[in-house]
Specification:
- With 434 residues, this protein is of the alpha/beta class.
- The protein has three domains: 5-99, no CATH class; 104-282, Alpha-Beta Barrel (TIM Barrel); 322-434, no CATH class.
- The chain is built from 17 helices and 15 strands.
- The protein has an eleven-stranded mixed sheet. A two-stranded antiparallel ribbon has the order 1-2. Strands 3-4 form a two-stranded antiparallel ribbon.
- It is globular, with a radius of gyration of 22 Å.
- The protein starts with a strand and ends with a helix.
- The structure holds pyridoxal-5'-phosphate and iron/sulfur cluster.
Length: 434
């Protein structure tokens, strides 16, 4: 299948576009001028149910929605476009709106960039002891942009700080000095937009470096759900599968961390074929996705996804909480509601699907899971725990917040029984030193 991308410039050429009114098409233009927009022919032809608009989850996942912007921002931009304002003015206004959408949440930029000597390694993040993240420069885009993307500033070029490393040499130097690292997670964007030969270069270097402490290589990708031809019929699909097999033959394990957002992504013929091909290389598939209003905020969606994943040989891994960036107001599901969704979906699956953890916030101190709602002496509390943390001693220690049905993120929660969460003083010290 030939890859065909549609963006702000050409989306009116999408064959099914007349399923949308002129007004709806205009809304895509307005919001797509502020937030990144790119969709491809697989999503359009195989995932979106065009008779199910405007609620269709695959549609909302890929097409900008009017309510993703605040009314005043929407109207401001709509007016500029209607009067065909100067492109510089449009850009300036777009940037202003973008800056109000918290483009750099949670200290990703400041706190997790390691150094080698006194050189900052911008394409590496190392926050949790065992896992180092690597952002290859050629893998910093995607086969389509998710409307809820938390890395959105990188796709519209307003990220002051682009995570990206030219090649793997610095990564290897860094790993040599860090024997505590067992996993390298290659991420993006989507590293599988890279040609297989570039991925082969990186992986060959890691393997040739004889780093015995590295046991697992992970790749974070949405290609499986949004461009499965990457593994089946792209020009270098076979070469890509060879690279996967090469890792597994070396004695290290390749794990694909696949974004799966709604059940339909697992229903097409092509995705099933791609899963089979990947599995034949010895690669393990694990799934992760945020819980998002308008896309998958029902127990039914998650229950169905987890069941289907297990049946297809994908291990359910994380349910994330929408980050406090971009269109969080549109997509955000409150923590208490996210937990209810998780629990209702989880209680009706067999143990094989209970490998999944969440709902989890990737916050600055660590990944914080909403473990449940407790009632203590007649009062409700939210029970939390770290499943990853800057200090590993914080992990698996239950702690409590005041019950709050509107809280969307860790910052919105008030500590219960104390004026601070147990980790806060230590965390502040860590951050002020880095
Ligand atoms: C989630 C995450 C990881 C991986 O954590 P695992 O628990 O090993 O899956 C690594 N680094 C960062 C910064 C993360 O957010
Ligand atoms: S796959 Fe990830 S990085 Fe790419 S657009 Fe979606 S959320 Fe953003």
């Amino acid at each position: 299948m030939k890859f065909k991308a549609y963006t702000l410039q050409n989306f009116r050429n999408i064959p099914q576009i007349n399923k949308l009114s002129e007004e709806e098409q205009f809304a895509i233009e307005v919001v797509g001028t502020v937030l990144p927009f790119m969709v491809n022919n697989y999503i359009i032809d195989e995932l979106i149910n065009w008779d199910n608009l405007p609620e269709d989850p695959a549609f909302i996942l890929s097409f900008p929605q009017k309510d993703m912007l605040k009314v005043k921002h929407y109207e401001q931009m709509a007016e500029l476009i209607k009067k065909q304002a100067d492109i510089r003015e449009i850009k300036k206004t777009a940037n202003k709106i973008r800056m109000s959408l918290n483009p750099n949440p949670d200290g990703q930029m400041e706190h997790n960039v390691p150094t080698l000597g006194n050189k900052k390694l911008k394409g590496i993040q190392h926050k949790y002891n065992e896992t180092a993240l690597f952002f290859p420069s050629k893998g910093q885009t995607c086969h389509a942009y998710c409307t809820f993307c938390f890395r959105w500033p990188q796709f519209i070029g307003i990220s002051k700080f682009k995570f990206a490393e030219q090649e793997a040499d610095n990564l290897i130097k860094y790993l040599r000095l860090h024997p505590e690292v067992t996993d390298v997670l290659i991420t993006g964007g989507d590293p599988l937009v890279m040609k297989a030969k570039y991925l082969r270069d990186i992986i060959q270097k890691i393997l040739a470096a004889n780093l015995n402490h590295i046991k697992n290589i992970r790749i974070g990708t949405k290609a499986l759900s949004h461009w499965p031809y990457r593994f089946t019929s792209d020009e270098d699909a076979e070469e890509l599968l060879d690279v996967f097999a090469m890792v597994n033959k070396s004695g290290k394990r390749l794990a694909l961390m696949v974004h799966l957002s709604h059940p339909r992504e697992l229903a097409t013929k092509e995705v099933k074929k791609a899963i089979r091909y990947i599995q034949q290389t010895g690669t393990i598939l694990r799934s992760q996705s945020p819980v998002m209003k308008h896309i998958n905020d029902t127990p039914k969606a998650w229950n169905k996804m987890w069941r289907k994943q297990v049946q297809l040989g994908i291990i359910p891994y994380y349910m994330f909480v929408a980050r406090d960036t971009g269109a969080q107001e549109y997509f955000g599901v409150p923590l208490v509601k996210s937990w209810h969704i998780f629990k209702e979906a989880y209680k009706n699956v067999s143990g094989l699907a209970r490998t999944v953890r969440g709902p989890s916030m990737s916050a600055d101190p660590g990944k914080v899971e909403v473990s449940g709602i407790s009632e203590i002496e007649g009062k409700k509390f939210i029970a939390l725990q770290f499943i990853q943390a800057r200090n590993p001693d914080w992990i698996k220690k239950p702690f409590f917040a005041e019950y709050d049905e509107t809280a969307l993120w860790l910052d919105d929660l008030k500590p219960a029984f104390s004026d601070k969460f147990f980790f806060e003083d230590e965390f502040e010290k860590m951050v002020s030193q880095s």
